[in-house]
């Protein structure tokens, strides 16, 4: 197993989503607890703001996780009668939009300057303070297939490579908390995969032990014992996950398919 293959799969359980051609991610929007459509983030913050402004304000003001639990009407009523009760959730939505605006033009992080890196990290830290899910490993919100829209991991971004040697399609990460399994999936042009067992060390952090690599989606290779990492979930709601790796890298992901199951082997 070459070092390049290991790096291409992201040993920090990092994954990427926006294509290197500059296509930007979608922002999941839910209505009545169900995903109905997505708003595309434009290549500029202004375009993103215009797109978001066209969405019913209620979808942004009321947290989707509350709606899934059937408390949407209660939250709306509370916010109307006692505005201070809904302030924290409203702030979280505002910070989420700010985060999406900041990362939209950065081509999954490839084109980020030092100033961009500092700004995104600052916004992420602000959002992490508003984390509504204090024990993510015990939450059903964590399970499913996630698409990464931003990372600082060079093993994922491969900035030193020509663009045609970087992953050009979306890259996903799937997690199932009931089986403690994880999977990274690259799409075009490499189609590499890696699966792993998760060992919880706290209610928000796991040790990741990779077990098998699949090269070009066909050749299965047992992972070396040193292929391991750590991952901490620092923010989690229905649609957005922020995670940090053991090397200090930041990962921002959006939910793609909550029903996806990671193969046991």
Summarize the structure.
By secondary structure, the chain is an alpha+beta fold. It is 27% helix and 30% strand.
| Main sheet specs | 8 strands, antiparallel, barrel
Please give the alpha-carbon distance between the first and last residues.
19 Å
Contiguous helical run count: 8
What would CATH call the class of the largest domain? Mainly Beta
β-strand number: 11
Describe this structure as you would to a colleague:
With 265 residues, the chain is an alpha+beta fold. It folds into two domains: 3-21 and 135-257, Lipocalin (Beta Barrel); 26-128, no CATH class. 27% of the residues lie in helices and 30% in strands. The chain has eight helices and eleven strands. It has helices at residues 3-9, 45-53, 57-61, 64-68, 72-81, 87-103, 114-128, 154-157; strands at residues 26-31, 34-40, 144-151, 171-176, 181-186, 193-200, 205-215, 219-222, 228-236, 240-245, 250-257. The strands form two sheets. Strands 3-4-5-6-7-9-10-11 form an eight-stranded antiparallel β-barrel. It has a two-stranded antiparallel sheet with strand order 1-2. Helix 2 crosses helix 6 (87-103) and helix 6 (87-103) runs antiparallel to helix 7. The longest helix has 17 residues, at 87-103.
Topology:
Layout: H1 3-9, E1 26-31, E2 34-40, H2 45-53, H3 57-61, H4 64-68, H5 72-81, H6 87-103, H7 114-128, E3 144-151, H8 154-157, E4 171-176, E5 181-186, E6 193-200, E7 205-215, E8 219-222, E9 228-236, E10 240-245, E11 250-257
Antiparallel strand pairs: 1-2, 3-4, 3-11, 4-5, 5-6, 6-7, 7-8, 7-9, 9-10, 10-11
């Amino acid at each position: 197993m070459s070092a390049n293959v290991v790096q291409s799969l992201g040993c920090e359980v990092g994954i990427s989503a926006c294509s290197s051609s500059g296509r930007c991610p979608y922002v999941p929007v839910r209505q009545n607890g169900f995903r109905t459509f997505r708003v595309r983030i434009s290549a500029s913050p202004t375009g993103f703001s215009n797109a978001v402004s066209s969405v019913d304000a209620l979808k942004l003001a009321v947290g989707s996780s509350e709606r899934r639990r059937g408390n949407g009407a209660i939250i709306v009523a509370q916010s109307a009668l006692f505005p201070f009760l809904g302030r924290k959730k409203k702030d979280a939505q505002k910070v989420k939009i700010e985060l999406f605006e900041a990362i939209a033009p950065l081509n999954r992080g490839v084109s980020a300057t030092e100033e961009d890196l500092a700004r995104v990290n600052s916004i992420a830290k602000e959002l992490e303070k508003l984390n509504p899910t204090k024990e993510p490993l015990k939450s059903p919100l964590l399970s499913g297939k996630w698409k990464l829209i931003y990372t600082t991991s060079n093993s994922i971004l491969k900035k030193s490579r020509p663009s045609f040697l970087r992953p050009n399609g979306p890259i996903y990460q799937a997690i199932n908390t009931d089986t403690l399994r994880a999977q990274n999936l690259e799409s075009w042009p490499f189609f590499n995969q890696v699966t792993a067992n998760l060992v919880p060390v706290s209610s928000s952090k796991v040790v990741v032990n990779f077990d098998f690599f699949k090269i070009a989606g066909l050749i299965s290779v047992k992972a070396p014992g040193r292929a391991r990492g750590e991952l901490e979930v620092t923010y989690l709601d229905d649609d957005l996950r922020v995670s940090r790796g053991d090397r200090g890298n930041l990962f921002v992901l959006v939910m793609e398919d909550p029903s996806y199951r990671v193969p046991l082997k």
